[in-house]
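Can you make up a polypeptide sequence alongside its tokenized fold?
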Amino acid sequence: MRKNNKRKCVCACSIIACLLWATNVCGAGKIIIDPKIYFGVKNNSNFWKSAQNKASVNTYYVKPGIVFGYVTPKVDISFDGTLDAFWYDDQDDQQSGVRAAEDDNYVGATVESKANFQVTDRLNLGLKDDFYVTRDPARSDGNSNSIARDKYAINYFEPNMYYEFADKFGLMSKYRNTYTDYEKNLEDSAENRGIFDLFYNLNRSAAVYVDYQVWKREYDQDSSDYTSNMVSLNYEHQFNYYTIKGGGGYHNRTFDSDNIDDLDLFSWKIQLKGQDADTNRRTTRSYLALDVGQEMNDDGTGDSYFTATYLRFEGAYRFFDKLETTVKAAYQNSDYHTDPRDEDTYYSSLYLGYNIFNYFTLGIEGGFESRDSNIVGNDYDDLFVMFLLNVDYSLSSR
């Protein structure tokens, strides 16, 4: 594993070096350097998400980091990284059999970087690498139904290429390596995935494309390795404010173990996104995201696989350039294939933030998370409230 990681590191450095060299060829560009630091205090009424042993816990965090960007007409390089320190403090008397929250104190990281180079009018090369050190199980699988708090590192390494070989046709190909490494002696995994999209451009704003993905996930302990194949037909349309994507297809998963039956699923999803033109998530005045779909989870440690049917919504608006508001709501049904377990998880939150100065935002967020399960002891309800102070400072750019 370590040798593979060294090769990927060398490869990543080589590609970035080439892109940096390309900036000299393409001329001067715009440099963005934004130091930042985030502070927060959060209380969870049921920190361990337990049906019986509910515990109120305060979470304190500080996240110093930096955003770097370099943009030219042909090159776009970005880096967004923070060092994430968390401390936990029990607010109730510790119950028998429940570990102290402070035992979970840790220092993690969130690093997201990407680079794109428009080589010719028809050819684009890209590289994306995301690295996290966290206790959040959702980082390991977007459809996670886990409440575990084990610390782990996960890295997503993804070079990609898009080639437009005719006025109407284009081909996108990606390779994605996902490596999950737990701090304790838990089960690590590695996934290698190939992604191939054949586009037919109906016009400048709409396209139909066939997506084919094949991936192999290997575990280093007892879970069975598997191979997944998924093919789908999709449609994408770009409006002035909205982008809509949707599609569906067939997903088949086979396991190396003869004791686990193959899994088959009609997988589908619809995504609606709204954002002001020529902005990103941080700078837009208004934002809307709606995801609806049905997929199989990928991280099946312990041979635990389920069909996730979900609806996720996020809406945000900034009033008077000062007052930020965000509403989030989510629902997921997790229907397990290997046992009768079936669970519904609900999430909702409201955030209000005020820009005290240009770079200082004081905010409060409150919400709840709840699970209904047909397995005794898996239900939980958790109310939370969080106060935060975000400092984003923009240095001079050119």
User: Anything to note?
Assistant: The chain has one helix and 18 strands. The chain has one domain: 2-392. Residues 2-26 form the longest helix (25 residues). The two ends are 41 Å apart (CA to CA).
